[in-house]
TrEMBL record:
NCBIfam families registered for this protein in UniProt: SSADH
Record-stated family: Belongs to the aldehyde dehydrogenase family.
Name this protein carries in UniProt: NAD-dependent succinate-semialdehyde dehydrogenase
Xref: PROSITE patterns: ALDEHYDE_DEHYDR_CYS, ALDEHYDE_DEHYDR_GLU
CDD domains: ALDH_F5_SSADH_GabD
Origin species: Vineibacter terrae
GO-annotated molecular function: succinate-semialdehyde dehydrogenase (NAD+) activity
Domain of life (superkingdom): Bacteria
Coiled coil start-end: none
Gene3D superfamilies: Aldehyde Dehydrogenase, Chain A, domain 1 (3.40.605.10), Aldehyde Dehydrogenase, Chain A, domain 2 (3.40.309.10)
Biological process terms in GO annotation: gamma-aminobutyric acid catabolic process
Length: 483
């Protein structure tokens, strides 16, 4: 890896303000999904190291929570600025371990920094309240206080932004945070910890514990010092974590799987819809929880949309994300590749047609050709499960009511998208969609200002935005008598 600042590449974890190996010296290997080559190792830590991080966080919290938000913001802002300044190197680290094209990786670093910058400011606006009292001699006051020590478990598809979207509001609200990054992408997380340290974040407020998910997660969910667990990942793992947190009744935020509908109505601007579908479906090689998973296209424009989408997909360039011009990196691992293959095989066996792609890419490894399936019907696995790969299944529909029924026919409810130029339809469909977020005439909706999160089995709580900091605050009511 060509880094200008080699110090950003750390093969030790950052626990309680110290860079360290696992107690027992165990380590895990991290590989580059584009080449299969070993990048390095990280400590395989477990409950003992996690407990150390949690206890240090509990100790560090006192002074941090007492510090004026304005002073916390200075440190956080410095951290965000350092991320932006080091976007080239963090981008290279991220592409090497995650596979996404370098331009996307650098874009994610800026996106990640934006959450720190935003919440540094939002922290200054955490205000309490004085309520109208029903009694002459008492005053009713509301305080907003930091929830306490937070723990975060994050996925490999956004190795930087899913950490800062949690660490930003936690730290701004006055809480320390212990992070377990995904085992496949620890180096981005550790590089950000290097920058947090350089920015002057006091020891113990941020730990990055690498290693055994079950053991680290087990300690995070059972340790009573942890008052809040925040998770992004699969619905299956999220449910297990929710059950595990019940024992100590922790506050929780869950950002789980999606099955995003993407609807193109007859009255859509087709060029815009194709552009949006490419952005939404093929971003990060289809590996985002808000990626369009099911594309519903109305009868009148189905054939034209399919043809234009296929022409745009043919222009995508698959390869190593570090190579110039590449827009589609590899899938994260063999299991992900096999899941995509199974979804395509199942659809074809049930009558779908491959319009383009539909097989492993000639590069080998975990590369898969950007794919479009036509003639897709509701009984296929691509309709029910999150494919998490570069496959666009196109379903034909007749009426607006059909589109809404099809879109909502899932237990998930994260993002949904639709294209229409009829203002009445825009309101009707937006209100009818059972999702936490709706992109209207756009395939991209993520930023630090909009509230990100889902309904149904896609999760609990909102990240980013002016609402996101509430997830890290408790409301305390004071009833003051003797006036
Ligand atoms: N909502 C989203 O953004 C994401 C959705 N997914 C979906 O999930 C599928 C599987 O991906 P996968 O990476 O396995 O997702 P997981 O939900 O298993 O992984 C996400 C994070 O949870 C950790 N984890 C896994 N099991 C446990 C556990 N028992 N206790 C504590 N932490 C745990 C992982 O650790 P470790 O890396 O060490 O295993 C990782 O840090 C994908 O194909 C996709 O459909 C995946 C990632 C993100
Ligand atoms: O896929 C995810 O894990 C959510 C991040 C995507 C985004 O912020 O747009």
């Amino acid at each position: 890896m060509q880094l200008k600042d080699r110090d950003l590449f750390r093969q030790q974890a950052y626990v309680a303000g110290t860079w360290m190996d696992a107690e027992d010296g165990a380590s895990d290997t991290v590989t580059n999904p584009a080449t299969g080559e070993k990048i390095g190792t990280v400590p395989r830590m477990g409950a003992v190291e996690t407990r150390r991080a949690i206890e240090a966080a509990g100790f560090a919290m006192k002074a941090w929570a007492a510090m004026p938000a304005k002073e916390r913001a200075v440190i956080l802002r410095r951290w965000a600025d350092m991320m932006v300044a080091q976007a080239d190197d963090i981008g290279v680290l991220m592409t090497s371990e995650q596979g996404k094209p370098l331009a996307e990786a650098k874009g994610e670093v800026a996106y990640a920094a934006s959450f720190i910058e935003w919440f540094a400011e939002q922290g200054k606006r955490v205000d309490g309240d004085v309520l109208q009292s029903p009694w002459r001699d008492r005053r009713l006051v509301v305080l907003k206080q930091p929830v306490g020590v937070c723990a975060a478990i994050t996925p490999w598809n956004f190795p930087a932004a899913m950490i800062t979207r949690k660490a930003g509001p936690a730290l701004a609200a006055g809480c320390p945070i212990v992070v377990k990054p995904a085992s496949k992408t620890p180096y981005t997380a550790l590089a950000m910890a290097v920058l947090a340290e350089r920015a002057g974040l006091p020891k113990g407020l941020l730990s990055v514990v690498t290693g055994n998910a079950g053991k680290i997660g087990g300690e995070m969910t059972s340790n009573p010092i942890v008052r809040k667990l925040t998770f992004t990942g699969s619905t299956e793992t999220g449910k297990k974590l929710m059950a595990a947190c019940a024992g100590t009744v922790k506050k929780m935020s869950m950002e789980l799987g999606g099955n995003a509908p993407f609807i193109v109505f007859d009255d859509a601007d087709l060029d815009a819809a194709v552009e949006g579908a490419i952005a939404s479906k093929y971003r990060n090689t289809g590996q985002t929880c808000v990626c369009a998973n099911r594309l519903f296209v109305q009868d009148g424009v189905y054939d034209a949309f399919a043809a234009r989408l296929a022409a745009a997909v043919a222009r995508l360039k698959v390869g190593n994300g570090l190579d110039e011009g590449v827009t589609q990196g590899p899938l994260i691992d063999m299991a992900a590749l096999e899941k995509v293959e199974q979804h395509v095989a199942d659809a074809v066996a049930l009558g779908a047609k491959v319009a383009i792609g539909g097989r492993r890419h000639a590069n080998g490894g975990t590369f898969y050709e950007p794919t479009i399936l036509t003639g897709v019907t509701e009984n296929m696995a691509v309709m029910r499960e999150e494919t998490f790969g570069p496959v666009a299944p196109l379903v034909r529909f007749a009426t607006e009511a059909d589109a809404i029924r099809l879109a909502n026919n899932t237990e998930f409810g994260l993002a949904g998208y639709f294209y229409s130029r009829d203002i009445g339809r825009v309101w009707r469909v937006a209100e009818a969609m059972e999702t936490g977020m709706v992109g209207i005439n756009t395939g991209i909706l993520s930023n630090e200002i909009g509230p990100f999160g889902g309904v149904k089995e896609s999760g609990l709580g909102r990240e980013g935005s002016k609402y996101g900091i509430d997830e890290y605050l408790e409301t305390k009511y004071l009833c003051i008598a003797g006036m």
